[in-house]
Amino acid sequence: MPSAGAAGARLPLRMLHDRILVELDKDSAERRSASGIVIPATATLGRRLSWAHVVAAGPNVRQVAVGDRVLFDPEDRAEVEVSSKDYILLRERDVHAVAEPESPESELGLYL
Question: For 16-38, how does the pLDDT look when each residue is reduced to its tens digit (9 = 90+)?
Answer without folding.
Answer: 898 899 888 776 555 666 677 77
